[in-house]
Write a structure and sequence with these properties.
The protein is α+β, with helices and mostly antiparallel strands. It is built from 7 helices and 10 strands. The strands form 3 sheets. A 4-stranded antiparallel sheet has the order 1-6-7-5. The chain starts with a helix and ends in a 7-residue tail after the last strand. The structure holds a DNA duplex (14 and 14 nucleotides).
Length: about 260
DNA sequence: TCCTATGTTGTCAT
DNA sequence: AATGACAACATAGG
């Protein structure tokens, strides 16, 4: 589920269902998703409520009344589900926050790559994880500055959460497709104009996806998103989309539009 | 059996 | 100290 637009959707869901309600407990079904001791989480949750939520990149932070924040990260397959009846418990519910009104908020995560953590406050956690500003809230100056001194290929830099928090695999590919830049291009070969273009495409794509509430089927048909398959037709030039690996991640691009 | 999937992190080398 | 490359983590489906 997990790039910036999906997590923004989860935040809206969380706000609409789970804020300002007293909780009695948190049930841990699989402690592998915990980054902290189960006792620590239980202690924070017991008879507390979530008072506010904030999102930075792919992280969702939920503050409690006791000067503490619960940190959610959804990995590749995580999401949230609010439900009441026991038979509605979603499969792969790894943690259940129990509200006094009888409802539960499930932290659902098929693969175990999602994580729940407890932190003193957001600023501390952000620093500890070297998390940058949120990609959508970030100015070009900050983006430019975060890239300073980096030398690798542009695509892995876009996915680096210390540079632009919230960009993941498909959005990085989409940005470079839109800008007609080959994903393996070293940063040093990109001039200021290209970086400005990357920044503006990043904003444009994020804005579109957030406005669509991360509903992938509603993304424009000329996005590379719908053609992430080797041999698929490039929506720009009609050529063939190619698949390669960059820094261990599948990368889709059009060799005709995006020359190295 | 082997590969893939919208992610992060620890380790090792430079 | 920083940066980059890669394996590992875990599960289901083709």
């Amino acid at each position: 589920m997990p790039e910036l637009p999906e997590v923004e959707r989860l935040k809206r869901y969380f706000d609409a269902t789970s804020l300002h309600q007293k909780m009695s407990d948190v049930i841990i079904n699989d402690s592998r998703i915990l980054q902290c001791a189960a006792g620590t989480l239980k202690k924070v949750i017991g008879q507390q409520k979530f008072t506010s939520s904030h999102r930075i990149g792919k992280y969702l932070f939920a503050e409690t009344g006791s000067n503490t924040v619960i940190v959610f990260h959804f990995g590749m397959t995580g999401h949230l589900k609010y439900f009441k009846a026991e038979e509605d418990t979603p499969k792969y519910s790894r943690a259940l926050f129990k509200f006094n009104n009888g409802f539960y908020l499930a932290f659902v995560c098929r693969r175990m790559l999602g994580k729940i953590d407890v932190a003193e406050n957001i600023a501390t956690y952000k620093k500890k994880k070297k998390l940058s500003e949120d990609a959508f809230a970030m100015s070009f100056q900050t983006f430019r500055n975060n890239l300073k001194g980096r030398k690798s290929a542009i695509k892995p830099l876009l996915q680096d959460q210390s540079i632009a928090a919230g960009i993941g695999n498909w959005i990085a590919d989409e940005i470079l497709f839109k800008e007609k830049i080959h994903p393996a291009t070293p940063l040093s070969q990109l001039d200021e104009k290209s970086l400005e273009g990357i920044y503006h495409s990043m904003r444009k794509i994020l804005k579109m996806a957030v406005n669509k509430n991360a509903e992938a089927s509603e993304y424009p048909s000329d996005y590379l998103f719908h053609h992430r398959k080797a041999g698929s037709k490039c929506p720009q030039c009609g050529g063939k989309v190619e698949r390669t690996k960059i820094r261990g991640r599948s990368t889709y691009y059009c060799p005709d539009c995006q020359k190295l």
